[in-house]
Design goal:
- It is a single chain.
- The N terminus is likely disordered.
- The chain is an all-alpha fold and about 130 residues long.
- This is HTH cro/C1-type domain-containing protein.
Length: about 130
């Protein structure tokens, strides 16, 4: 029995989700990180480069509302929910957080359903053999 690991999204995918959620172009995103051209970010998004520590640090400095745990490991919400001014999030960002959490829940439900179906099939096969 082989289960897909749909919950472990690659960091490149999270960076793309972030760019989409911020509603900026790849070039705008790269420039906010101090890059003059977007090539480095494009290469990261297409899997040709792995993001280095300094790039991840630049993202978190340029966008202090981003949850570092989410960016690095995919844990928690995309945007921080704190009272500090640097981490204040807008209603729109809260809605994106909720959409992302719903997406995660749907992915988990689909994975659980798939696992359940596979286990039922195995049980039925064992019943027929025994």
């Amino acid at each position: 029995m082989m289960l897909r690991l749909g919950l472990s999204v690659m960091i490149e995918s999270r960076i793309q989700q972030l760019i989409d959620a911020l509603n900026v172009s790849v070039l705008e995103f790269a420039r906010k990180l101090g890059e003059h051209r977007g090539e480095k970010v494009y290469h990261i998004l297409h899997g040709r480069l792995k993001p280095r520590y300094d790039t991840l640090e630049k993202i978190l400095l340029a966008y202090p509302q981003i949850n570092g745990d989410w960016l690095l490991r995919g844990e928690g919400m995309m945007f921080k929910v704190l009272d500090s001014p640097s981490a204040a999030i807008t209603v729109e960002e809260r809605l994106r957080n909720m959409e992302f959490l719903l997406f995660q829940l749907n992915e988990r439900m689909a994975l659980l359903q798939e696992t359940n179906d596979l286990l039922r099939a195995e049980i039925e096969q064992l019943r027929q053999q025994g």
